[in-house]
Structure formats: C-alpha cells, structure tokens
## 1
Amino acid sequence: MKSFKITTLPGDGIGPEVMDAALAVLDLVGNEYGLNFEIKTELAGGASLDQFNEPITDSVLQSCLESDAVLLGAVGGSKWDNLPQEKKPEKGLLKLREVLGLFSNLRPAKIYGPLADASSLKKDVIVGSDVMVVRELTGGIYFGNPRGHNEQEGFNTLRYKKYEVERIAKVAFELARKRNGHVTSVDKANVLDSSQFWRNVVHEVHQDYQDVPLSNMYVDNAAMQLVRDPKQFNVIVTQNMFGDILSDITAMITGSMGMLPSASLGENHAMYEPVHGTAPEIAGQNKANPIAMIGSVAMMLEITLNQTEAAHRLNNAIESVLDNGIRTIDIASSDSIIVTTEEMKDEIIKAFKQTDQSISNSRELVKEKNE
Ligand code: IPM
Ligand code: MN
C-alpha cells in the first residue's frame, strides 16, 4: 500500500472547520484508491501563539519538512493584530514558505460555470476566462533586508537574485506550455530597477521556451486589464507582492475567494492551502465554504501525490454539486439550496462516489461494446 505523510495545520478562524472537511475527503480517497495517509495535525498561526507564544514552532516545521505535503487551513485574526511583526500569526506562514523553500505559488482562478453570476463583473466579461497566477513566494520585498521601522521611518528592501527569477520564470513557461497558453510577465520596469532586472532575466529564460508566447505588462495596467478583460490572460508570472495583490483580483473574478485553492511548491516540499483567509465573523458556525480547501486537496493529489484520476474525480464532484444548486451561504443566490460546511462536504463525498459509479458503468459499456 502506498503511504504518504501529510502534516495538517488547521490554523485559525474557519481553518479547523474546512480542514475537517478536507480530512474526510482524504479519508475517502485513501479508501477508494488504497492509499495510506499518515496524518499529523499541528498548530500554526494564532493557535500556536496562544499555546507556545510563537506563530510556528521548530518541531512543527520539522514535521512539515518530513512530510510529503502540508495542508494549511488559514492563519490570522484581529486578536493578534497588535503584536510585533515577528510575532504575528502571518509570520508562521512566511516561515513555512521560507523553511520549506516554497518559491512558486500557483493560484488558478477558474470560473465554475454555475457560479458565473456570483462575480461582481458582468458574466460575458468573465465566462471563458482561466487565469493562472504564478507568484514568486520566497523573495522580493516580503523577505528583503534591511527592513524595519521606528518613530521616524519605515522601510523594506526589494531585491531579486538571478536564480530566483530564473526558477520562477521556468515554472511559468512550463505551465503555459502544458496549458497551450502564453505568459504575461508583470512588473514595474518603468520605475523599479528590480523590475527591469526581472524583465531581463525572464527574457533570457524565454530563449529556451520560444514556443511559448511571452509579453510584459506593468502591474498597474495588469490590475486594470484583469477586471476589464480577464480572457486576455493565461499564465501571469510576477514577484511576491504583485502576485499577492493580483491574485486577490483574479480570485474576485471567479465570484468567491471561498472557491480557490493554491499550491506552494519548492524543490523538495509542497504546501496546499485555500486562498481565502480565516473569516473570523463566521468561524465556528459551520457556515464556511470548504470548496477551496477540498480543491487544495485535489491539487495536492495531482501535483505531489501523482493521483491524477482521484484529483479529477474530486474536481468533477465539486462541479456537479455546484451544478445541482447546492451552495454555502457565501456563494448562494435566491434559488440555491443553502447548506452548512459539513453538508457541503457530505454532498461532495456523495458526488465523488457517484462519479465512480458512472466511471465503472461506462467502463462496463466499453467492455460490452468490445466483446
Ligand atoms: C496570502 C496572504 C499572505 C501573503 C499573508 C497572510 C502573509 O495574504 O497568502 O496571499 O501576503 O502572502
Ligand atoms: Mn494575499
């Protein structure tokens, strides 16, 4: 039996509830595909601060380093807002990215057909758009030194090394090639030296990917173009902070942050998490949308665990539940069937089992035909 070590970090707010849903799904996938998931659940973010006075402990980092993949719920909350930078829950997440070397962050913004009305943009603007943001995740202004603030000034450093730009550019070109798509490299080369450098390096790497069309766009224009006509984009590659901002915009194109999964990948490690935050206002009420978390499990199955069929079945299950008008409150419209977090999870599990049925039925048909 194949065995995988997974560390789960439910975190804060709705994190634990959506993680419970993810674990139930993982359990099902394990049973159906004969996989053994060795799961360790650990504290991160505010939950870790409350217990250990640190947003993530060395022993948790160690557990993550020893795992095939990490699943993260969400971290943060106003309770910890006034702590110094080093003690904020978010620091736990940044530490994880750094220690695991997760330099590439994939944030797909796929429109689910039945949800096209949930976007604040017009349906005909968004339908058919499928943007993948490839965000550099362990460099740039998030990590640059020196940094600091006092009564008189505050400062951060934006610096990129050549190898950092090269490796993220490769990820983007490879992905675009697989998607038969094209790459837009987003920067601010008209103002920032680091961006001019970024642009130069991306073009150098492009020499090895002549079959993949490449264009450049300034970040302010990209923000505008994303809401004007998202269909013009395919893969966007950009530095850490621009990626943070643009991926929130692409998330909103789809109508709900509650829907979007993400993967953070390095040479040897991988972490999967929903793009949404901790949503403290609905935490503990069984109202959170678990789809982004379950979608993150699907990404993990596909990218790290090589369980492509299970991943596709899971994504199909999510779509079919949405097709049936079943919604958590964040994506509900007047004719929806509104369900809780747990009910949504149960529906997805039910749909997953049914797709198996239809897959094996169609296999039977094919067999009969061939006989
Ligand atoms: C994200 C979040 C994080 C980031 C925060 C919580 C540190 O906004 O994953 O997009 O800025 O990277
Ligand atoms: Mn963000």
Note: Residues 341-370 form the longest helix (30 residues).
## 2
Amino acid sequence: MSKKEIYQHIENNAVFKGLKVNSGIQQPEPVNHESVKRFLNKSRNLLPVNDYVTGILNGDITLLSKAVTLVESANAKHQQLAQDIITQCLPHSGKSIRVGITGVPGVGKSTFIEALGSYITRHHGKLAVLAIDPSSERTRGSILGDKTRMEELSVDKNAYIRPSPSAGSLGGVARKTRETIILCEAAGFDHIFIETVGVGQSETAVHSMTDFFLLLMLAGAGDELQGIKRGIMEMADTIAINKADGNNIEKAQLARIQYNNAIHLFPKKESGWDPIVLACSASQKTGISEIWDIIEKYKELTIQNGYFKIKRTQQATYWMHETIQEQLKRNFYNDHDIKLKIKDLENLVLEDKLSSFVAAGRLLEMYWKMK
Ligand code: GDP
C-alpha cells in the first residue's frame, strides 16, 4: 500500500470519530501471486475502475461480486465507482435473455430454477440468478437467502447466484438488480433469471426488466389462496402448473385447461405472443426442456417482429425515470434542513392543524429554495 493510500484510509474520514489510521512503514509484499494479492486486499480498499471492468469482461466472478457489492452499497463513494463501472460495462451488456420467474412461496421456485438452470448450463450457456425482493419484505421461501436449496447450481461454475440486497425499498432494490443485470451480462452470463415472490408489487418491477415472464402456479389451489392477482396472470407469457407429479398429475392437467381458458380472455399481447399454459414437475424435471423451448420460441418471434428491441428500449426509458424519482426522493429526505423541519410539520398534520398538502407544499418550497 502506498503512503498516499494510507493517508486516504477510509477510517480517517470524520465520521469514524476517535479513529485515526497513521501512515506506517511500507512493508514488502508478502506474496507476489496476483490472486493471493487480490485476496489479501481488504474489501474496503477499492480498486481502480479499470480493474473491475477488465475483471468483469474476463468473467472473473470475484471481481463481478465485488462490483455488485458496490452497486448495493449506500456509500456515496462506492456508488460513484459503481456507476463508472456500469457505464463501461454497458456497451458489453444486453446480449442475454432475461427471464422473470414468479410464484407464491412454496410453489417450487427454487426447485424449478435449479432444474431449468442446470438444464441451461448443461446445454446452452451461462446463467445468473438474481432476486428482487428485499429480504426484509420476504416471507418464507426466499430462494436466494438460502443458497443450499439450489445444491447443483450453487456449485456450477457456469452459474452465478446472487442473493437479493438485504435492505432497502423495493424501488431501490429493483434499480440495483437492474444494474446487476448489466454487470452479469458484461461478465458473459447470457441467461439471466430474476426471481420474485409473486404476492406484492415486485412482479411489476420484474416485468419492467425482463424479456419473458413466467408464472408458476399450483393445481387445486384457488387463485385467492395463491394470492395471485389478475394483473400478474395478465403479465405472464407462460404459466407453468408445477408439482404435476404423483397423484397430482390429473389435477394439474385440469388446472392447465382452466388457466388456458382464463388466460385467453385477456386482451391480446403487444408482443404478438400467444401465452402458453403447461404443466411441469420441477422435482421430477418433467416439462422443463419444454419450457426452455417456449422461451426460445418467444425470443425468436419477438426478435423477428421487433418487439424484443422495443420492449428493451421502453424499459431503459422507464428506468431512467425511476432512477430520477428515486434519487430526488433520497436527496430530499436526506437533506439536513428538511430532516429538522419534517417532524414539526408531521405533528401539525397529526394534530389536524395543517392539511397534508399544505405541509408537503411548505417542505417542497423550502427544498427548492435551498437548491
Ligand atoms: P419456493 O418457496 O417457491 O422457492 O419453493 P421451493 O422450491 O422451496 O419448494 C417448496 C416445496 O415444494 C419443497 O419441499 C420442494 O421440495 C417441493 N417441490 C418443489 N417442486 C416440486 C415438484 O415439482 N413436485 C413436488 N412434488 N414437490 C415439489
């Protein structure tokens, strides 16, 4: 470590009160091997942008993971570095098929991702599996919180599994997931799965960053019971009735017919794609290759009719606006003066002395004046 780097040690920042890192005597390098040096490099020692970018473009998983950690960090310096890395990776991204996979906890998402994912890495290429639900919002069934549930994929060198960032608003997590997609694609992952628990708002976010949307359902459980809203079914490009095995096969076939009727009552899709309903068993690995064939057919059709590109462009503009909104909001709520004032106005609203609109107006006016 150079003297300059020691002087700029992160813990010398004023926020670490009582801590002072003195510049010491430069020690000789203990080992020369590149990978060992990298290992010894503590995570707080940031690398130059180019090191991350070159590593990612060479498919180096360690550097990819470090860059994703920067994307997830709330630290302004990390964020700046992350944005620089993303900008340089952007021209190398986009060459993948992005698949959103949703379904209520227990439907078999992790088992399914393991089955389809292993099929893909065996026959078609590399796969990154990301999640969008902030862990704090998760109920049981967080596939990625518990990697051991995907035994095969978690040791597959062609697969990269990244758990969802542990905290933050859905909007924030969604943006980070979208940025992570870019990094994974630049690292050569040509298949991206984004998993979400299909009970909240998150599937809209997943839909806004994927090419193909797959909904997993169960036979014999009413839609009410599965908590799946009509809007989510409407978004689906394919519905797979999972657990079609053992005594459940007949029920699954019946459900397939019912859902097939239901899905065709929805308006025709802009993509020109006719949604498909089929039955599968993630644990028995039946219907899995068929689902892959469907995804490939979808890609072929939408590339041919131009929708694939249109959707990606629409998504890029959508994310531009989402990012603006998120950053404006963050900037407002993190403002020192606003923080001081907001409690007073909140109390006035609680005491019915001020309407919420007037209070919001006053705070916003104060904010604009300061800018
Ligand atoms: P997730 O919460 O949606 O990720 O669901 P999991 O993949 O953890 O699966 C929930 C339970 O259903 C586990 O006990 C699985 O072994 C079981 N399961 C998953 N897929 C199938 C399937 O195709 N058939 C059967 N019979 N069980 C399954």
Note: The chain has two domains: 93-304, 319-370.
